[in-house]
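FAQ: What does the model actually see?

It sees only this:
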Amino acid sequence: MRLLLIEDDIALAEPLAQSLARAGFAVDVLSDGLEAQPAPVFTDYDAIVLDLGLPGCPGLELLRQWRAQGVTTPVLILTARNAWHERVDGLKAGADDYLGKPFHTEELLARLQALLRRAAGQARECLSVAGLTLDEDRQEVRLTNGEAVALTGMEFRLLRYLMCHPGKVLGKEALTDHLYDQHNERGSNLIEVYVRRLREKIGAGYIRTQRGQGYRFGALDNPLIKPAVNPPVNPTE
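And it is asked to produce this:
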């Protein structure tokens, strides 16, 4: 999931961006309202964390402009302006959630995860699709037989994005745009590598290749879906 953090307090923005990255988000950081204005119009972010007291253009005005332009990206306002009437103004301007400063990072992460699950049409406390359940805190997936499988950071990002878009054909370029921030190098074959690794861990058939188009996360009733089989242990190793 690619996230845009708009915060002019560098002392807060840098460590927060690092915490969000450790939680499996690709994070772009901007600090100026004018610079941030076109960002969600030209980049398909999965969520935005928005401060209100920004130089250039206030956060509330930015939000109103985005909604008027048809930007539907979930927005969480993160601000020191936390009076009840300010929270009401933020929600009426189009925010999906509102969190006052000071805050606990764990609460921000929980709210972002809830926003993304709702955007994906999931009301449950965990992302669960096609018999697989994703533990976003542990970054592991529980298989249909109950086994918990640990994921690397990029495997977790990829599986979470696929599970948020079941049944949709997702091209490599679209996947890359949502899994990497603007500073990451994006090798053309990396998505193929991580898809192969995920298939080895969760079982063949969940991620189907649409030749010339991309990948599609399948449904459980797909007859191609088979449980993952752990490779035999070589006693000489």
